[in-house]
Amino acid sequence: MKRSNAIAAIDIGSTKVTALVADVNEYGETRVLGVGVAPASGLSRGVIDNIQSARSAVAMAVEKAEQSCGMRILSAVAGISGGHLSSQNNRGIVAIPDRTRPITVEDRERAVEVAGQISIPTNRQIIHIIPRGYWIEGSDAASDPVGMYGARLDAEAHIVTGAVSAVQNLTKCVEGAGVQLDEIVLGSLASALGALAGEEREQGVAAVDIGGSDTAICVYEDGAVAHTATLPLGGAHLTQDLARLLRCPWESAERLKCEHGSALAGAEPAGAAEEVEVRAFGTNAEKRVAVSHVADILQARTEEILEMVAIELKRAGYLDRLAAGLVLTGGASQLRGIADLAELRLGLPARTGAPRGCAGLTEIVATPAYATAVGLARHALRESAPFHQPATARQREGEAAFPKILNRLAAFGRAFIPQ
Ligand SMILES: Nc1ncnc2c1ncn2[C@@H]1O[C@H](COP(=O)(O)OP(=O)(O)OP(=O)(O)O)[C@@H](O)[C@H]1O
Ligand SMILES: [Mg+2]
Questions:
Q1: Partners of 16 in the beta sheet?
Q2: What pLDDT, in 10s, does the model give residues 201-214?
Q3: 368 lines ligand 1 (CB under 6 A)
Q4: Ligand 1 pocket, 15 CB below 6 A?
């Protein structure tokens, strides 16, 4: 595949900013051509709180990705996350005036558009309207109604909304780093796209991305997005607990967690040391800490995170309907024993999910911490069904839908120029 078909994706997390350049190889895999990672700054709980710092972090990640693939990134899709996001499902009904003709693509789009019409306050905007399913004459479910006959078409959509200010800050931050923003995609949706198998999506699954400051959930049922949510705990809270309870600096707590930590006491590999040395406050000497004590501290907080996930899934009515259980992504899902603890506490199958179907630079990106970035790239490569551009967003931009589409198609062709 020609390099001009490459796209770029930017995942702005609370711990790291990742810029990816990817195309599709001859096997249909997402081939990563370049990657740049920069430590996050200017973010609090996934939301930009210092635009200059966040812009510098994005610019650094973009520059590193450009150097890694030898191409200039002119435009990209970016992920959005944070507690300001919310979601709901809604139905829309349209009449088909002439029942002697088959249902058209326009009818289907009209039904989704109606399903996406919800009233929201002026400080919020629609980010996605994702079709979930269609019904003809109120009862016959159709995976795609186009070409079928009926006098009435119902569509159900999953609608994601977010704070206008958060969207504006994200846009300014990416554009300030010299990159045109093609599209904003919900981070948890991207993680699910990166890590889930088709069969899991059909049978019912929750992709749970445990990042630095947040845990983002995306539930799939019958192959469609059913529920999304963001919960305010993540890997940084695990580090914070270690730092407080062992009275050590953040950096040594972070290293201790990643190198010797586990979510389940006794999950350490055979032959692992029983005690480790940690640099602590108040003394120049290193302090010896029992690995089982570290695991006890981490287990308590990990159980709280998993409990919160269970409460959210139960509240939304999906806890008993997930045959494929949980797929854990995000940096903190690399904590040893976390999938076993999830199985134990939620009584559901659980696995850690590195991005699937990707090639190129896999030693970096084929780990759970890059599921969001790979999912964003996969969405941009149009391997997934495109999300609907909400009418409210088009109106807000003061543009007609048509020029916007043309702009995007044009942007696709010139997303990259060789350096
Ligand atoms: N091997 C490991 N074991 C345990 N935790 C880890 C490991 N590697 C990274 N982490 C943790 O993963 C977290 C960062 O995850 P990730 O890179 O997915 O965050 P992010 O995308 O920047 O944040 P967010 O999605 O919350 O905005 C940090 O808390 C880090 O300590
Ligand atoms: Mg993340």
A1: 39
A2: 999 999 999 999 99
A3: no
A4: yes
What is the DSSP code string of 190-249? HHHHHH--HHHHHH-EEEEEE-SS-EEEEEEETTEEEEEEEES--HHHHHHHHHHHHT--
**Ligand 1 centroid, distance to 143 Cα (angstroms):** 37
Dump strand ranges (E) for 25-121.
30-39, 43-44, 47-48, 71-73, 75-80, 86-95
Mutate which of 41, 47, 258 for ligand 1? The one with the most ligand atoms within 8 Å of its CB, which is 258
* Ion ligand 2 neighbours, Cβ < 5 Å: 13, 211, 372
The closest alpha carbon to 227, from 295, 152, 313, 129, belongs to: 313
Phi first, then psi: give them for residue 258, nearest 5 degrees: -70, -35
CA nearest 59: which of 27, 25, 17, 90? Answer: 17
Tokens of 23: 């195309």
Contact present, 78 and 181 (Cβ < 8 Å)? yes
Among 214, 190, 218, residue whose Cα is nearest residue 322: 218
- Ligand 2 centre to CA of 267 (Å) is 25
CATH class of the region 197-353? alpha beta
Q: Which ligand is nearest to the CA of 16?
A: 1
> Under DSSP, is residue 73 helix (H, G, I), strand (E, B) or coil?
strand
Residues 241-262 pLDDT 10s: 999 999 999 999 999 999 999 9
Q: Per-domain residue ranges for the chain?
A: 197-353
pLDDT beyond 50 at 372: yes
Which tokens is 88 given?
Answer: 């709901």
What pLDDT band is residue 47 in, cutting at 50, 70 and 90? confident
DSSP assignment of 236-298 equals HHHHHHHHHHHT--HHHHHHHHHHH-BSSTT-SPTT--SEEEEE-TT-SSEEEEEHHHHHHHH
Alpha-carbon gap, residue 330 to 77, rounded angstroms: 19
Q: What is the pLDDT of residues 129-187, one digit of tens each?
A: 999 999 999 887 888 999 999 999 999 999 999 999 999 999 999 999 999 999 999 99
- Closest-lying ligand 1 atom to the alpha carbon of residue 82: 27
From the CA of 16, give the closest atom in ligand 1. Answer: 22
